[in-house]
Amino acid sequence: MDFHFANVWEAVADTVPARPALICNGVVRSWREYDDRAARLAGVLAAHGLGRDSKVGLYLHNCNEYLEAQYGVFKIRGCPVNVNYRYKADELVYLLDNADAEAVVYQACYAMRIWEIRKRLPKLRLLIQVDDGTELLLDGAIDYERSIARSAPLPRMPRDPGDVYMLYTGGTTGMPKGVMYPGGQFSQFLTAMGAAARGLPPPERVADVPGLVRRVEAPPVSLPACPLMHGTGMWLGSMLPLALGGTVVTTPRLGLDPDLLWGLVEQHRVSDLVIVGDAFARPLLEALDAAAARGTPYDLTSLRQITSSGVMWSAETKAGLLRHHDVVLADVMGSSEGGMGSSVSTREARPGTARFQLNEGVRVITDDGRFVTPGSGEIGRLATSAFVPLGYFKDPQKSAETFREVDGVRYSFPGDYATVEMDGTITLLGRGSVCINTAGEKVFPEEVEEAVKRHPDIADCLVVGVPDSRFGERVVAIAAARGEPAPDPDAVLAFTREHLAGYKVPKAVLLVERVQRAPNGKADYRWAKATALAALGDA
Predict the structure, then answer these.
(1) Which of 23, 88, 355, 457 has the fewest Cβ atoms within 10 Å of its own Cβ atom?
(2) Within a domain: residue 79?
(3) How far is the CA of 15 from the CAs of 9, 216, 401, in angstroms?
(4) pTM score
(5) Is the pLDDT of residue 348 over 80?
């Protein structure tokens, strides 16, 4: 097996050199240019002593340079490290030190933060600054564009499919962890996934990739609306379409701008939009509704699929999107530690919430190691044996907890709990790490959040447990109103009580101006708990 991300993309570039590969802010890079610029950056990295297994931090917004830099790192058989651009100094130092980063490619707007921390990172030997017009070139750094213009392309080389690919995941609790995969197997997995989605046989060798690319009748034009620094945007929004010879459209603008995104769909004839649950889907739906009400609806005729992963995507929001366009809605259940299942909705197939068909090799296993029987009502943790990571980088204890054997089979346990229905589908309950224990009953925040968000005047919601002298923990909802006037919290509670068992209903609804989330739409439960404690305290 000769799969490797660099090998696959080189094969694509040789097959469709003139086809657009990357588009950002009006700058279009063909596959020939994408490959050449990555090879030149690889030459820069190699000239500074980086090579096999060298870690390179990518401290960038969504942009062409992000994907070029990642490709360049793969070309030298290095390991790109995704860096969360919201991190402050101490968090950045922890991540880059933990990853053994030898170089960082960073956006110019973060030059002062790099200057602040560089002396605390003695392993760093190279700083590459991407000009965005905000800062002068940092002393000791090199300019991205000038360096690749002066560098000769690094010649192609044999590569080992065992080279480690790593994605850092912060999750909802704890410090960031590097999830390690065998890079060759991972690139083959994504290529096969893309082929299967189009009814084509998966390539068995890199030599088969050109044939696959030629057989893809409508190459994907993908718009990852979520950050490339997270798995959903990178894997589903970028790596997968690139393996099929597609095009990736990005915008470096921070924050969710639904009208900008729909405008990019129109302008570039986007076929695949990648989002993260209701945190993205609801504002996107509101923008479509508003445009239709103005009599200037967006042209969605090119859009074939909207894919979401990582956060609850409600049936109501899916149905709203389908009112505007007949599109496939792919709700993917997975995490950095493994894929678990999916749910596909169309105008013919009624949308659902948090109910999924399991992938091959996925089971639901109780905390005491038993397989959950369909229809039993038992709760267990989702586990997959299909494609299990090597472990967490430099964290054997956490690796042993998350990746372990059951009945002689090695599984990944990312942390999600679920029940198994009689028909074999599963209902996702949520993460055990934020599960609330109230009067001996388990309450999963996502289920309660979904019920609260069904209220017509609630735009977003997070649910946490706070200490309670009587019940151990009490359920509290932190919610943002859709507009003015704000709804009566008691009315929200009464509405929620119609959809949940009594013990799951929040004891209080705290209204805030905005519910805080990560750039990828995932919940910030630490903020939510601090907000609840500040307002209510212990009881």
Answers:
(1) 88
(2) yes
(3) 10, 12, 44
(4) 0.85
(5) yes
